[in-house]
Amino acid sequence: MAVNDDYAPQSPFSTGLAGRCPRCGEGRVFTGFVNVAPSCGNCGLDLKFADAGDGPAVFVMLFAGFLVVGTALFVEVKYEPPMWLHFVIFLPLTLIVCIGLLRPLKGVLIALQYRNKSGQDGPPA
Ligand SMILES: [Zn+2]
After folding, report:
1. What is the pTM of this model?
2. What confidence tens digit (pLDDT) does each residue in 72-86 have?
3. Comparing C-alpha atoms, which of 12, 56, 65, 60 is closest to residue 34?
């Protein structure tokens, strides 16, 4: 089993946004949309430490709320469109922003867990 020193340090943001392994930067972290793989297919890093919990959802809600509600308020004040147009525009936008950000943010938080040696089962090896 390789140790951390065998790999060049990876940016938690580039690996996390791409859904790649925080140690080697090559293997995939996710098996499904947001399901974490048991281990890296490239370097064998045990990903049991990876538990982002509700962290990604919180950041997604904060960012999506700011973006969508802010844009909806701006559009309402500036153009005063009918309410049905708000629903047609901003409900799909909400879904797109939330679903689109969830996986990359979870990847970043998992990579930051690895970088900061944080985990409920102790630091990752
Ligand atoms: Zn790896």
Report:
1. 0.82
2. 999 999 999 999 999
3. 56
